[in-house]
Every structure is written in C-alpha cells, then in structure tokens.
Design brief:
The chain is 9% helix and 30% strand. The chain is built from 1 helix and 5 strands, in the order βββαββ. It is globular.
Length: 110
C-alpha cells in the first residue's frame, strides 16, 4: 500500500564517475527517522563546501542537468571522492558538487 507521506520527502539523484569511464547513478529518497530497509543501499551525502546551480523546468530540458554538472566539474577545488548531487523540487532541480575542504591555519596570542 502506498504511503502518502512518501511523496512529501525530498528526492535526490547521486552520480559519480566509475573505473571504466562511465557514470554510476542512484535515484534516492530521504530516509525518515528510524526507518530501515535492509535490502536498500544507504548513501550519505557529506556536509561541506558545495558549488550549486539551479536548473528550472528540468523536465522540458533534461540535458541542462548534465551541462550544469559538466561546468561545475571543471572547478579547481573539486572533491574527486564525492558525489554529484541533484535535489529535486517540483519543476526545479538543484545541482551540487562538493569542493575540497580548506585548511584553516589558526594562531594563538601568547
């Protein structure tokens, strides 16, 4: 039986390059607190610095999502170990690419 609350969750797409030159892609949905599905993979999107761009009306121009990522993947501070993230909102999709963490040098007054 369908769960009406399911449609209120945030839907995501995750992708990253694989070892043979292709792209692995996962369609994802935000997990509810305490929810467990042992037969499903769990992917965690790490906090950090991201560059983002919004693609409006993506259903009419799905290739715009790929183009947005192609541009963002050129960023010199790209975190090569992270996912490309798509966050879906009605007719718009927010495209995000994680950047490397910056080192912070702290000094103390003596």
């Amino acid at each position: 039986q369908a769960n009406p609350d399911f449609c209120l969750r945030t839907f995501y797409g995750l992708s990253r390059g694989n070892r043979v030159g292709g792209i692995d892609y996962w369609a994802c949905v935000e997990a509810a607190e305490g929810e467990k599905h042992p037969s499903l993979e769990v992917h965690i999107v790490r906090a950090g610095r991201y560059i983002t761009t919004e693609v409006g009306n993506f259903r009419e121009q799905p290739s715009a999502i790929g183009e947005a990522f192609r541009q963002m993947l050129k960023h010199p501070e790209l975190d090569q170990e992270s996912y490309c993230v798509e966050e879906y909102h009605a007719e718009n999709v927010k495209c995000m690419v994680k950047l490397k963490q910056r080192d912070t040098n702290l000094t103390t007054a003596g």
